[in-house]
Inverse folding.
């Protein structure tokens, strides 16, 4: 392993454990692994994918443990659960910049949609109704390029 790679790896572990410490959680290999998986993933991931990721990293954690960790992360606001009406939840790292999702109703692939034009709408909601919007969710359903 090259030195730069080692440093990067150490730094990553460091920030992940700091992040857990910040919300009052102790770092365990499974918690760190799940946090890393969520940060690396470019789309919301389900529990089965998290288990695969942990296995690849040789981190021991059964389904119950992974569910328990993901529930704690959700309560602490590290993770946002996302429901695509596919009979399971997916999870995404909460500190990602504002973006939305497209899900293919045929093959189930999920893509991030980076453009967001909700700013004006949110401004109007607060102006007209006096409501404070803290976050919003918007999903697009349809057919991906392969399924069309
Ligand atoms: Zn996303
Ligand atoms: Zn598709
Ligand atoms: Zn948005």
């Amino acid at each position: 392993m090259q030195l730069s790679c080692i440093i990067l790896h150490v730094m990553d572990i460091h920030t992940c454990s700091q992040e857990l410490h910040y919300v009052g959680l102790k770092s365990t290999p499974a918690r760190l692994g799940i946090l890393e998986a969520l940060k690396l993933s470019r789309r919301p991931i389900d529990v089965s994918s998290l288990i695969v990721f942990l296995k690849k990293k040789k981190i021991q954690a059964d389904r119950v443990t992974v569910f328990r960790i993901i529930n704690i992360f959700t309560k602490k606001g590290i993770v946002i659960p996302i429901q695509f009406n596919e009979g399971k939840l997916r999870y995404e790292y909460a500190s990602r910049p504002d973006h939305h999702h497209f899900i293919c109703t045929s093959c189930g692939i999920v893509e991030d949609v980076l453009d967001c034009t909700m700013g004006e709408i949110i401004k109007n909601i607060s102006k007209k109704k006096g409501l404070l919007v803290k976050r919003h969710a918007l999903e697009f359903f349809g057919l991906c390029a392969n399924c069309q």
